[in-house]
Amino acid sequence: MSTPWHILGAGSLGTLWATRLARAGLPVRLILRDIDRLHDYATAGGLTLVEQGVASSYAIPGETPDSPGPIRRLLVACKAYDAESAVAGITHRLAPDAELILLQNGLGSQEAVAAQVPQARCISASSTEGAFRDGDWRVVFAGHGYTWLGDAGHPVAPFWLDDLEAAKIPHEWSADILTRLWRKLALNCAINPLTVLHDCRNGGLQEHHCEVATLCAELTELLERCGQPAAADNLQQEVERVIQATAANFSSMYQDVANKRRTEISYLLGHACKVAERHQLNLPHLKQLQQRLTAHLHSLGLPVD
Ligand code: NAP
C-alpha cells in the first residue's frame, strides 16, 4: 500500500491535486478545518473537478486535524497567510519521517512552516497551474501549467514524484527552487499591485511602462543583493513579455481585491520590502508601492497583512 497523500486545505489547488491523485488510484485523505466543515463535506459526498466543461466527482475520505493516525506525506494547500496555523494544528500527527509539500505563493510562509516542523522534510513548490472554485467542494481547472518542486537544503528528488507522474500532474524537480520562487515573486511585485492601483487588466500596464521599468530596476537590485542573481536576469524583459502575453487577464491580486478577499501581500510585495530593509537597501519606489497598496486595501476594509 503506498503512503497516503494527506491534503491540508480543500480549496482550488488542494482539490486540483486531490482529485487527480485519487483518479490515478492513489490513496488520498482531505484534512478539513473542523467538524462543521467535515459534516458539510460529507453532505456534498466528495470533491468535484470541472475540466473543459465536464464535471467528475471523487468520494475522497475527509477528516479533521483531530482524527487519529499518523501523517507521512502532507500537501499544504492553504493560502500563505493560513499555512503556519493550519500546520500547527496537525504537527502532533506528523510521523518522524514526514514530508511536507508547500504550495504557497510568494516567500516567507515556507520558512515559517519549516521552523515549526524541524524534524520533517519541507519541499517547496511553484506552480503555474490555474484553478478556481465555482461552488463549495467544486473546482474548475482553468489553466494548464507546470509545478516545480524543490528542497533548498537537500537536492535529492523524492521517490513519490512517480505518484505525480501517475496522476498526470506536470512537474519537474528543481535544484534551484528558491530562484524560481524569487523570480515569480518579482514578477508578481512588478505587475499585480499596479493592476490593482490602476484598476486594469495586465495589458493596461503597457500605458505605465516607466513605472514598471522603475520597479523592475529596484527588484533587480534587491534580487542581486539577496543572493539571487539568476532570478534577476533580464527581469524587465520578462515582465514586459508577461504583460503582453497575459494582456487580457486580471491578475490574481486584482481578482482577490475585486472579490473582497484577503490578498497574500505580506508574502509578495511585503516580503520584498522586508528583505530590502534587512539588507539596508533603499528602494523608494517599491516602498511607495507598498504604502499605496496598503492604503488602498485599508480604504476597502481589506486586511493589509
Ligand atoms: P483557496 O482556494 O482559498 O484554498 C485554500 C483552502 O485552505 C481553503 O479551502 C481553506 O478552507 C483551507 N484552509 C485554510 N486554513 C485551513 C485550516 N486551518 N485547516 C484546513 N483547511 C484550511 O486557495 P488556492 O487558490 O488553492 O491557493 C492556495 C495557494 O496556492 C496560495 O498560496 C495561492 O497563491 C497558490 N496558487 C494558487 C493558484 C490557483 O490557481 N488557485 C495557482 C498557483 C498558486 P475553507 O474552504 O474552509 O476556507
How much is the average pLDDT? 97
How much of the sequence lies in strands comes to: 15-25%
Secondary-structure element sequence?
A: EHEHEEEEHEHEEEEHEHHHHHHH
Give a list of the ligands.
NADP nicotinamide-adenine-dinucleotide phosphate
Account of the 3D structure:
This protein has twelve helices and twelve strands. The N and C termini lie far apart (42 Å). The protein has helices at 12-23, 35-44, 80-88, 109-116, 161-166, 177-197, 209-225, 229-232, 235-245, 252-258, 269-278, 284-299; strands spanning 5-8, 28-31, 47-51, 54-58, 62-63, 71-76, 94-102, 121-127, 130-135, 138-143, 147-150, 171-173. By secondary structure, the chain is of the alpha/beta class. It has two domains: 5-175, Rossmann fold, CATH 3.40.50; 179-299, N-(1-d-carboxylethyl)-l-norvaline Dehydrogenase, domain 2 (Orthogonal Bundle). The mean pLDDT is 97. The strands form two sheets. An eight-stranded mixed sheet has the order 5-2-1-6-7-8-11-12, with helices on both faces. A four-stranded mixed sheet has the order 4-3-10-9, covered by helices on one side. It is globular, with a radius of gyration of 19 Å. Helix 6 (177-197) packs across helix 10 and helix 6 crosses helix 12. The chain is 43% helix and 20% strand. Helix 4 links the parallel strand 7 and strand 8. Bound molecules: NADP nicotinamide-adenine-dinucleotide phosphate. Residues 8-14, 31-33, 37, 77-80, 82, 85-86, 89, 103-105, 127, 129-131, 133, 264 line the site of NADP nicotinamide-adenine-dinucleotide phosphate (NAP).
